[in-house]
Amino acid sequence: MARGILFLGAIVWLLAGTVSIGVAAFATPQLEAALPPLVIDTDALRGAIVALGGGLSAVGLVHVVVLIGLGARRRWGSTSAILLAALLTATLIALAAAAATSAAATPEYAPAFLAGVAGASVAAIGYAVVVARLVGARRSGSAH
User: Fold this and answer.
1) Fewer CB within a 10 Å sphere, N or C end of the chain?
2) CA dihedral for 105, 107, 108, 113, sign (positive or negative)
3) Are 70 and 81 in contact (CB under 8 A)?
4) pTM (2 d.p.)
């Protein structure tokens, strides 16, 4: 199950990165029109979206490397998977809390923020399951 969650995570992170870069390339003006007034220009917004897409893609690639290590039954693969999943669990819990706070502070955007709370919470639970499974396997001696 842990590998399946990590595989799904790799797909989602890589897809999110690709979509972000696509938005930067083809839809920045439409995004800018949908946002509240910004103090940055279109090129700065585009650069920020590309940076976000690069970061999302990098997290997806880390998932792929971890999956390769797990598939090869390397000890570093298991260790890396535990560290990655624990880090993402904590990060996603923090993002869910931030989105919940933002929903309370700006009711006009509450539905979008609450969707973020739901998504981050589900992902945090998934990564917590990965940690629990892999740590359990380590303790039982079945993980490398």
Assistant:
1) N
2) positive
3) yes
4) 0.88
